[in-house]
C-alpha cells in the first residue's frame, strides 16, 4: 500500500463520520487526483478481499464500514449498550456537549484528553446528541430534547453551575481550536 493510501486509512479509521474529498486534500496537503488514486488503491484492498472492513464512497465522501459476521457481532454489542446504562466516559462526553451547548469532536477530544469517536457514536445512537451543521471541516454535536428528558432537566441551563462551567469549557474549547490550527 502506498504511503498516501496508508495515511488515508489511518485518517478514515480515526474519524467517526465520512470525510469529503476536500477534507482529505486539506488534511494531507495532496492534490485531488492523488487522493482519488489512493482511495482506489484502498478500495481494491478492502473491498475485493475477504475483509470485514469495506470502504464506502458516495459523492466524493469516504468512510470505512464493518461487514459480515463482524458487523453482526458489533450490532449485538451496540444494542446492549443502547439499552444499558451509560458508561462514565459516555456521561462525561454528554456533559461536555450539554455544558458547551454544541461541540466538535476535536474540542471534545482535547478537553477529555482521549479519542471520543466511540462515545459520540453511542450517544448519537441513543438519540442523546445529534449531528448539527458543520463548522469548517468538523461536525458539530448538539444536545437533543431526549438529553433533557434523560437528565431530568427542563432546559440546558438547569445543569448545576451551568454559567461557570459553560464559560470555563468554552475557553478550553477555544484552546483546542488554536492548537489544531
Automatic annotation (TrEMBL):
Q: What is the lineage of its organism?
A: Bacteria, Candidatus Nomuraibacteriota
Report what the protein is called. SMC-Scp complex subunit ScpB
Q: Which organism is it from?
A: Candidatus Nomurabacteria bacterium RIFCSPLOWO2_01_FULL_33_17
Check the record and name the Pfam families matching this protein: SMC_ScpB
GO biological process terms on file: cell division; chromosome separation
Q: Sorted alphabetically, which keywords does the UniProt record give?
A: Cell cycle, Cell division, Chromosome partition, Cytoplasm
Amino acid at each position: 500500500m502506498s504511503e498516501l493510501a496508508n495515511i488515508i486509512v489511518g485518517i478514515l479509521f480515526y474519524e467517526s463520520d465520512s470525510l469529503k474529498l476536500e477534507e482529505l486534500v486539506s488534511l494531507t496537503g495532496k492534490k485531488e487526483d492523488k487522493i482519488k488514486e489512493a482511495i482506489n488503491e484502498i478500495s481494491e484492498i478492502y473491498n475485493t478481499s475477504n475483509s470485514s472492513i469495506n470502504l464506502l464512497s458516495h459523492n466524493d465522501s469516504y468512510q470505512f464500514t464493518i461487514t459480515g459476521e463482524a458487523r453482526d457481532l458489533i450490532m449485538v454489542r451496540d444494542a446492549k449498550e443502547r439499552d444499558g446504562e451509560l458508561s462514565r466516559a459516555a456521561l462525561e462526553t454528554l456533559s461536555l456537549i450539554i455544558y458547551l451547548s454544541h461541540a466538535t469532536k476535536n474540542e471534545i477530544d482535547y478537553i477529555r484528553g482521549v479519542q471520543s469517536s466511540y462515545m459520540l457514536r453511542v450517544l448519537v445512537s441513543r438519540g442523546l446528541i445529534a449531528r448539527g451543521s458543520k463548522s469548517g471541516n468538523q461536525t458539530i454535536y448538539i444536545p437533543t430534547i431526549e438529553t433533557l428528558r434523560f437528565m431530568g432537566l427542563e432546559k440546558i441551563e438547569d445543569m448545576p453551575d451551568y454559567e461557570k462551567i459553560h464559560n470555563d469549557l468554552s475557553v478550553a474549547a477555544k484552546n483546542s481550536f488554536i492548537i489544531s490550527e
